[in-house]
Write a structure and sequence with these properties.
There is one protein chain. With about 500 residues, this protein is of the alpha+beta class. It folds into two domains: about 1-145, OB fold (Dihydrolipoamide Acetyltransferase, E2P), CATH 2.40.50; about 170-315 and about 380-485, Bira Bifunctional Protein, Domain 2 (BirA Bifunctional Protein, domain 2, 2-Layer Sandwich). It has 16 helices and 20 strands. The protein has helices at about 1-30, 45-50, 55, 95-100, 100-105, 155-160, 165-170, 170-195, 235-240, 280-300, 320-330, 340-350, 360-370, 425-440, 450-460, 470-480, and strands at about 60-75, 75-85, 90-95, 115-125, 130-140, 195-200, 205, 215-220, 225-230, 245-255, 265-275, 305, 310, 320, 380-385, 395, 400-405, 405-410, 415-420, 465-470. The strands form five sheets. The chain has an eight-stranded mixed β-sheet with strand order 6-10-11-20-19-18-15-14, with helices on both faces. The protein has a five-stranded mixed β-barrel with strand order 1-2-3-5-4. Strands 7-9-8 form a three-stranded antiparallel β-sheet, with no helix packed on it. Strand 1 (about 60-75) and strand 2 (about 75-85) form a beta hairpin. The two termini are about 30 Å apart.
């Protein structure tokens, strides 16, 4: 009961504070000082820029703008801290410097207000780089109350729902998203420098193929047709290879109608690239070099911390077949298993659950997921997947039960998925038929036949290597973020009114 009463008192106090802020705004508007009438403010410098270049800026006039995060009023002079994109900087605000009336206005400013400050750069007696204000301008009146500064914003649900507050209160969160932007820029520079062309392909499609996932469905009123949100970028990018664009890539959102967890969000950023006249070995070489280059450029090192591990992107990535990986970590040699019946027997012995539709190759993959994935901490290419789980991949000529495919694993997580792309339209049609059969058996993640894509293959696609990267997972790795929601500005959340 006492706790409930304290909460009621706290809510009344907050309501009173909110009321006072609105009254302050009304007074400003009545006095012709409405901050929301200001349309621009000329900023010359940011906080970190001033601190890093103090020697040349000392004594010079600068203008900065940002949010008031703290304020100490001491009679005729005060201090406040202004937070901008780069960090924060202290300002010394004295009545004799800015004028009596502006100083009275300044004393009424609230934490969270956005202000502009013009003044000279100097260093206080305690050695803090600061600005001696000559003018202080209220640019935006904050009508809400920021979380208490010492504790910050720690409730993860509120952080994800109100990312704008999270960015204000948690500098490390802001740094994560600045890093995300730098990572994507570095990827683009790398690929552009290697002759790749960035393209855009449709998000609304009639046939959502290219991955094993359940699509979101909607209706296109103008055409009176049901359409889907894409689950992959693959099939359209391959059409461009057919058209003669030999190196293409796309970075874009894809949508999969699935649950959420630390590694999955139904809306996420995928990058796929395709290169004519190479194979999955070429994709391995490119991926290893790109990861190493991006890490060095963005992090300044190729050895990056993640959770309790140090991930070494500088050493050659390990390369191992799926069969050898299962043999190494599960002690089961699938080269000695000839039939699906034998595979099911071994699965029963190792308590690996499977479905009636699963064949030998599917069960090999189930063993890999059960016994191997979490063991792959350092960068590892897992190669040569069974054909049953790879409907768009070229078979290995010497062993057609397997395909030229790899997945890159780091810290037990899939970071990339690549193929020597299947360019035989007859084989591809048979693979689509197999997928249709799986769909009929209840697998709602199976692909359906894409006749236009088959037509493109019949026109002729050169030997091609292709790969897809989970951009969010790469950002998680390079920013040492534990969950995908920590690297998505606005992750999918259940509506509060549901």
């Amino acid at each position: 009961m006492a706790e409930q009463k304290n909460e009621q008192v706290k809510e009344q106090d907050i309501n009173q504070l909110l009321k006072v802020r609105r009254e302050k705004l009304a007074d400003l508007q009545a006095a012709g000082k409405d901050p929301f009438q200001i349309t621009k403010y000329d900023v010359t410098h940011h906080s970190m820029e001033i601190k890093e270049n103090f020697a040349e800026l000392e004594g010079k006039t600068v203008t900065v703008a940002g949010r008031v995060m703290s304020k100490r009023v001491m009679g005729k002079a005060s201090f406040c801290n202004i937070q901008d994109l780069q960090g924060s900087i202290q300002s010394y605000v004295a009545r004799d410097s800015i004028g009596e009336e502006p100083y009275k206005d300044f004393k009424k400013f609230d934490i969270g207000d956005i202000v502009g400050i013009k003044g000279q750069v100097f260093e206080t007696k305690t050695g803090e780089k600061s600005i001696h204000a000559e003018e202080v301008t209220l640019l935006t009146k904050s009508l809400q109350i920021l979380p208490e500064k010492f504790h910050g914003l720690t409730n993860t649900d509120i952080r994800y729902r109100q990312r704008y507050v999270d960015l204000v209160m948690n500098q490390d969160v802001k740094e994560t998203f600045i890093m995300r932007s730098k990572i994507i820029s570095a990827i683009r520079r790398y690929l552009d420098g290697n002759g790749f062309m960035e393209v855009e392909t449709p998000m609304l499609v009639s046939n959502a193929g290219g991955a094993a996932a359940r699509p979101f469905e909607t209706h296109y009123n103008a055409l009176s047709e049901d359409v889907k949100l894409r689950i992959s970028l693959e099939l359209y990018l391959k059409r461009l290879i057919v058209g003669g664009l030999e190196r293409v890539y796309e970075i874009g959102r894809v949508f999969r109608n699935e649950g959420t967890d630390a590694r999955h969000n139904p809306e996420f950023t995928l990058m796929e690239l395709y290169q004519a006249y190479t194979d999955y070995n070429g994709m391995m070489d490119l991926t290893e070099d790109m990861f190493r280059t991006v890490a060095q450029e963005v992090c300044g090192t190729t050895v990056v911390p993640y959770a309790e591990e140090m991930i070494d992107l500088g050493k050659p990535f390990e390369r191992i077949t799926m069969v050898d990986a299962v043999k190494k970590y599960a002690g089961v040699d699938f080269t000695q298993i000839a039939t699906t019946e034998e595979a099911r027997k071994v699965a029963d012995e190792h308590h690996v659950e499977y479905e009636n539709r699963h064949e030998k190759g599917d069960i090999l993959n189930l063993f890999f997921e059960e016994f191997v994935e979490e063991k792959l901490i350092q960068p590892t290419f897992v190669m040569d997947h069974p054909v049953e789980i790879s409907p768009l991949t070229k078979r290995k000529p010497e062993n057609p039960d397997y395909v030229e495919r790899f997945e890159l694993f780091i810290y037990g997580r899939e970071m990339a998925n690549a193929y020597s792309e299947l360019n035989d339209p007859i084989d591809q049609r048979e693979r689509f038929k197999a997928q249709e059969a799986m769909l009929a058996q209840g697998d709602d993640e199976a692909n359906t036949t894409d006749e236009d894509f088959l037509n493109a293959l019949e026109i002729g696609m050169p030997p091609t290597g292709g790969i897809g990267y989970g951009i969010d997972r790469l950002v998680m790795l390079l920013t040492n973020s534990p969950a995908i929601r920590d690297v998505l500005l606005f992750p999918t959340m259940k509506s509060l009114d549901k």
